[in-house]
Batch of 4 targets.
Target 1
Amino acid sequence: WCAQHDEKTLVPAKARAYELPSLSGSESVGVLRFLMGEPSDRAHTEAIEAGVAWLRGAALRGIRVETQNGDRIVVHQKAVPLLWARFYDLDTEKPFFCGRDGIKKATLAEIEKERRMGYAYYGTWPQTLLDTDYPRGKRGPGQETKHSFRNTPT
């Protein structure tokens, strides 16, 4: 799902200057958790399955973010936990970054230090959903927990 949607048309929308219309590795988690808590029908189940598949495909491997000398940088390293970008391009689905100038950039290093340090462009937001909540929700009827969904055909 997108970071923001227009309240009337539901099309992807811009928020602050550095929050351009985009798919989101963060906000998608909240939408999926909401759907998983609702009574399930085929449309809900398909949306959940598609959302989980997208999150799995959007995971970024082999990088971590660290603070060095008062700046946030991306470090390439094997065998680190998965990360997700906050924003993914609507057309290419590649991560992008944006500073206060409102111009889309390909790397975190291209935006101003104030935004690198003051905003969460990378995170592990989907990890618990993918590792725990989603598998728990895949249990059959009568075994659901608070965050589960039912795969019931309509």
Target 2
Amino acid sequence: MGTESRPGTGSRWREHYNSRLVQPEDVAAQVRSGNRLYVVTSHESAPLLAALLGRADELTDLEIRSLGGMWTDYGFQNGQWAHMVRANMSFGTPTSRQAIADGVTDFTVVGYGDAFRHIDQKRGGSEPFDFCWFTVTPPNEAGFCCAGAELWDLRTSMKRSKVNVAAVNKHIPNTFGDTWVHVSEIDYFIEDHEPMPQRYLYEPAPEAVEVAKHVSGLVRDGDTLQIGTGSTSGTLAQLGAFDNKHDLGYFSEMSVAGLMELVKKGVITSKYATVRPNKFVTTGLTGGADEYEYVNNNPFFEFYGYDYMLNPAVICQNENMVSINNGMSVDLRGQINLISMGPKIWSGSGGQLAYHTGAYLSKTGRAITVLPSTAAKGTISRIVPQFPAGQMVTIPWDLADTVVTEFGVAELLGKTMRQRAEALINISHPDHRPELRKSLKKAG
């Protein structure tokens, strides 16, 4: 069947769009008790969510699922609306960490960007979502809307939802990649032209300055980088870790502060990238309005979905792939934790396991984990003899590669257990080395 014969396509797309342009309350009125709503990461529409909360006395047993967690606290994650809705996240944020610990918000583990395998395989209790809410640009002359610079799981969640609702926002940039959605794929539209907020940027810690120097020595000209967000990895570009490099590539789950400047200076060219050469490839930006303006109609930047960008089989096709991600703690065996403090969820594995694995499998690739040597004003060592009971492990010891603190670099690949432990102790804080060595002797 050609596109002209499908409702809302071809020359008739305007008719479809205008007939489905409604108020937020009209969409909220269609929600029923027991429905499951998918809110696309970084695409929260305040008018839609406010209209939903307007029905708090009528609705019960709703689920709001969001991959990355909502950064704005609408009350779903603090128990305020527990009688009506339960949130379900896959990444802890400042607004959800305590709610997850208290059992107010559910946490669903997602691996390698494959968030919907259970739905596709029709596993027990896995049904498509009733609604998917997201944000796009107004349609162009051909009837296509753009998801802008925050694609994430938009395309994949749309395909697994019964009703797709788009908030139309003129501040979303037009971008390249797999970011365009035809109006015929959308059931309802509302207008929400709230300007895009400026995102939170991490303030570099003093330890990160030294970490950046060590990382700079590990990165080679022509490498393709992935950099994770966080207080250490997310500040490396700001701190000049890559300023003296040439023709770096970028293929990553997200961007971090300072990368746009490296593009403007010609440091990031992706000239030698194997997958999507000569392109800056990511799923989403992190900087907000300023970055949106820079990538608007800029063909150097391409955005692809979460399921593609977090697939190790794709990532490892980049030769000289280098992943650089935060760690919260590392034990002397080389196990790496990003997710929790003991059993308490702090964040989520996000793209770290996918990119660490992809870099590990890449020809001449390297998987780097960065972290300060201590926490709590130096009183707690982040390099530990062993993890406490209930501790999550993000990277298993099988994939341990390179660990960096402000005190140096520990190369773990190919090392014996004793050599690994010695290398990690050597980059721990000097105040904690005696106790770590004592624990090593106890372990035999």
Target 3
Amino acid sequence: TCMLPSDRGAELGERLAACFGLPFWQVMQTATEANRAALRWARAITGRRRVLVFQGCYHGTVDETMVRLRGGRTVAREGAIGAPFDNAAAAVAVEFNDLPALGAALRDADVACVIAEPVMTNVGMVLPDPGYHAALRELTRRHGALLVVDETHTLSSGLGGYSRVHGLAPALWVCGTAVAGGLPGAVLGSTAQGEERMRAVLATREAGHSGMGTTLAANVLAIDALLAALDTLHVEATYAAMERAASRLESGLVASFARRGLGWHVSRVGARVEFGFGPAPRNGTASERAMQPLLER
């Protein structure tokens, strides 16, 4: 099982900090597990109970994020099975790129954190409006909510992820899947202030039974896979090659659609490219509405 941690964990922490810009790290097995820990920490640190998510988001199978915005109300996501509590009581959903709605929710909803993909990716691709992330960062700080950025689907935006390329400065940063080169491994990074607040919480609790981590978290196979990925995958040459290929694909698709007079769009962030059958959406609801499952298939 490769259960026990190794002394290479210290080397890994330094390498993660150098690559992604946050000084403190926890190693998990999946992005779901890392997101769940991030939300638990956010509630523990702030003393608040609710989290804010964006309509159409995907953060794994974390119960609080399995919600949707329907008719102006936050409701449990359709199809969710066996929820242990009312998901909608633990979360508030707003539309991506809607700053007035975001500000109102942060002001009124006792929000511990905003958990966000920098670019929405699981409901088609929805790019942020110019200035949106700067406003999101300012609003979370103003209202005392932590910003949790989930880069599991945007890691290929550039070396260090979208957050480092675009200077998002989250309080907590999560990534899984590709971060360990495809082996089971995920990471949760935090700022120095976040680490200090975590330690303050732990100082008031009985040791152990924190609800964080699992038997196989930070096992030696995951640590070695993460170190290998940092050596060979998360390097400038790899990202440059992906960027060139993605740019070629994007320009080829745009030209092809134009030749045929199709009003379709291409969205790209770093090495991630998608196209859709209509104008580019600005939020999850618009993206859902424009989907054509039979044509996509």
Target 4
Amino acid sequence: MNLADTLNLGCLCRTLNPEHLRAQLETDRSLAGLTQQLATSHPHLFSQTSVFLDATTRNKLARTVAAIERVIALPAYQAHTLAQAPAIARHGFGPAGVFMGYDFHMADDGPRLIEINTNAGGALLNAALARAHRVCCAAMTGLFDAATDVLGLDEVFVAMFRDEWLAQRGDAPLQTLLIVDDEPAAQYLAPEFTLARLLLRRHGITAEVADPRELQWRDGRLWHPALPAGLPVDMVYNRLTDFDLSLPGHGALRTAYESGAVVLTPHPRAHALFADKRNLITLGDDARLARWAVADDDRRLLQAAIPATRQVTPENAEALWAQRRHLFFKPAAGFGSRAAYRGDKLTRRVWGDITAGGYVAQDLVPPSERLVEVNGEARRLKLDVRAYAYRGTVQLLAARTWSGQTTNFRTPGGGFSPVVVLPALAAAESDTAPALAAH
């Protein structure tokens, strides 16, 4: 084990002070009481411990993200992927998609990519959490990696939204932005919508949280009654899991997006290119990547990082059932561990659903573990690491700790955890990482 693994399995340190978290979350008078509200309604959202990562692993993870983005930018990759995507995904207006999430398990031989998500939730909450933990450990600042400036992340996130606007609208002024999800107040991460709204307002953008059914399409523009009279919707921060905008209640947003009347981020094209689980088959197909002239270094990174993935078909169903104890099954368009199953937990009834179509089988990569204290007892929880990224650059690393078959926020002692990279190990490392966002 490296030092990071040793600390994860041996350190019971609790570095989260509720008052420090309150100071980071309740940055506006309207947010007063949010920390206590979350402690009651989301008791397992935030872990009280950090997760440790060595610099070699961090660098491989960052280089893998950059390599994936280079492959996805290839015309051959896009043509191959969009051929199996909904027609709406073929619109290319310029934006890349905010808050891309790359989820990794930490294997003995390096980080292994489990999935990619568009509109990955939790970035603003994790930024606040990282700052709160950092305050607690101010005396240890010299031992923390400085590649990510957690104090400057708000500016990084706002700059990302402005970059998305610039990619489609150029120098036109960005005035209004809606944060959109179905029944937003009922969503588990609804507090993050409020944080995003206030952050954007502090930077001069009129922002509101909205349900897509409240949107109105008229006179070639998208409108919402919460915005000032006469101001249409310029931009939508899309938190919907209707990735192709096909549900009836999303018709106004779909029309505005397809006509180019609104800047939507992330959008159906981003989901098709990045988050469809079938893309892992393509990204792990070394022979295909070689035909597309992908650089040798990038191919080596992807071969090391992406577990073997294949589509479940009637032809291979019997063989996959026999190998199921070593596989994880996911719906191609799934998200948030919904309808995802470890092969060793499968029943014949569930297997019937999987073989009916739309699933991929991925080689099982067991997650590493973090030792935490729960009610005076030491417990081992599983962990994964999410890289929030934009255009191939990692902005923030965050971990999730849990117990059970799939990632969840129901585990005592678990939840979001800040990632502490141990830079002392970087001196012995030959590889250099792409710069993480540090604005």
